[in-house]
Design brief:
172 residues, five-stranded antiparallel sheet, globular, mainly beta, single chain
């Protein structure tokens, strides 16, 4: 019985890890971000951003995400020294904030290179998401971000119920 239970828990964990909202991300609706420190191929410097999110009261659940592109990743059984199955080309969440959290200024670190010692620059995508309705099991829908200011850098989106979300980004 314990062996069956363990197998069931492992199967659910692997399924949940491999099925995320980022699988259906549309990069055209988001905004590409990149470190302002060039990738030199031998080190992996990080660029710091401060982010302030603001969500209007009302509307549905809304969220901002910064996702990092991974050309190669461990899809199943990631033990850090061994990988059960390698996957290719996905967006992985690096940061998120939603309207259920109290507003706070947060930091995000953008790597200049995709991997240590790699000459490929890291790719990041800022995206906005909302749920149509009030319920935990409703799917997330991606919103189109609109730039409303360049200095400071500000992006906004609105859900179809009239709720708005705004993110202000400052480069350090």
């Amino acid at each position: 019985m314990a062996k069956t239970w363990s197998l069931l828990v492992l199967s659910l964990a692997l399924y949940a890890r491999s099925h995320s909202p980022e699988d259906s991300m549309d990069s055209v609706k988001g905004v590409r971000l990149a470190s302002r420190i060039p990738c030199d191929g031998s080190t992996n410097y990080r660029n710091e951003l401060t982010v302030q999110t603001t969500f209007s009261p009302g509307g549905w659940e809304r969220s901002f995400h910064v996702d990092q592109f991974e050309a190669k990743f461990c899809k199943y059984v990631d033990l850090y020294f061994m990988c059960g199955k390698t996957g290719h080309n996905r967006w992985r969440e690096a940061w998120s904030a939603d309207n259920l959290e109290p507003p706070a200024q947060q930091r995000i670190w953008l790597n200049s290179c995709s991997d240590w010692g790699s000459g490929e620059p890291s790719q990041y995508l800022l995206s906005g998401w909302y749920k149509e309705g009030a319920g935990g099991k409703l799917p997330w829908k991606q919103a189109t971000l609109k730039q409303v200011s360049e200095k400071p850098l500000v992006y906004e989106f609105a859900d179809s119920n009239g709720g708005t979300a705004r993110v202000e980004i400052e480069w350090k």
